[in-house]
Amino acid sequence: MTEVFCLSSFPYVLLPLYVKSIGSFSADKNIKYSSSISEFMKKTLDIDPAHCIIQFLNLDPENVGCSGTTMKELAKK
């Protein structure tokens, strides 16, 4: 059985948004980030925040590459 995820009157999400960072997210911070992003989406792009799904993704520094190494190694310098 397939379930349809509904928000408001639309049976789909208009904008999935993925926000990635190394160690910047927490339950309390994500509430503030979500509020700020939603306000920006409404004021700047006229997208109803009810139609945005924001997923916060914490990345491990050893899994992020930059300048021929990883962020974990760069943080040691």
Number of strands: 4
The strand line-up of the biggest sheet is 1-2
Portion in helices: 25-40%
- Proportion of beta-strand residues: 15-25%
The CATH topology turns out to be Macrophage Migration Inhibitory Factor
What topology does this entry show?
Elements: E1 15-21, H1 27-45, E2 52-58, E3 65-66, E4 69-70, H2 71-76
Parallel strand pairs: 1-2
Antiparallel strand pairs: 3-4
Pfam families: MIF
Family: Belongs to the MIF family.
Protein name: Macrophage migration inhibitory factor 2
Question: Key features?
Answer:
77 residues; alpha+beta; Macrophage Migration Inhibitory Factor; two-stranded parallel ribbon; 4 strands
Describe the overall structure.
This protein has 77 residues and is of the alpha+beta class. It has one domain (15-76): Macrophage Migration Inhibitory Factor (2-Layer Sandwich). The protein is 32% helix and 23% strand. It has helices at 27-45, 71-76; strands spanning 15-21, 52-58, 65-66, 69-70. The chain has a two-stranded parallel sheet with strand order 1-2. It is elongated, with a radius of gyration of 17 Å. The model has no long low-confidence stretch (mean pLDDT 88).
How is this structure best summarized?
With 77 residues, the protein is an alpha+beta fold. 32% of the residues lie in helices and 23% in strands. The model has no long low-confidence stretch (mean pLDDT 88).
